[in-house]
Design goal:
The protein is an alpha/beta fold. It is built from nine helices and five strands; from the N terminus they run αααβαβααβαβααβ. The longest helix has 25 residues.
Length: 200
Amino acid sequence: DRFGMLVDVEYSNRKNNRLKRLIRQAEFEQPDASIAAIDYHSGRKLNKALINRLATCEYITEYRNIFITGATGSGKTYMACAFGMEACKQYFNTKYVRLPDLLIDLETARTDGNYKKVMAKYANPVVLILDEWLLLKPTESEQRDIFELLHRRRKKSSTIFCSQYEFEEWYDQLGGDDSPLADAIIDRIAHDSYRINITS
């Protein structure tokens, strides 16, 4: 019995350490975020049933994406980090990053000769949270990086997009008809996505 207890304690410690490591590596903007603490007051018009379903992480095993849209300060980042925390609790490798920072990281890596390594850092996590998605219109080079990232993640991982723009506006933010990659990028993320719009 004593040996069994020691084994159980060791197993629990390893699971706890693994969870702490996953949370630390995720680099959440709001590491205290929690599904239980999401505010559902009437003005926000949030679908609690959908949010609770997404909190089960079933969308991850289905390789589906989540779009969270709303104005600045509406709680997009908090909600995304809360979903990310749930993913960590189920031991899914998770990563949070602002899109502007990711694009700078890739551009620097291209200059330094580390492009493949840095791209893998963002392409490989099972769950990737892209905050400030299309806050600024990406350049042609940045669009190629976005396309490459999303192409690598397609049908084998899940991405959570946080944007001030409604999904219907993303095509124009990507350059619209003037961009050869706008359609390709939208095509790689829109299929079977879950959409949450936070009204303040």
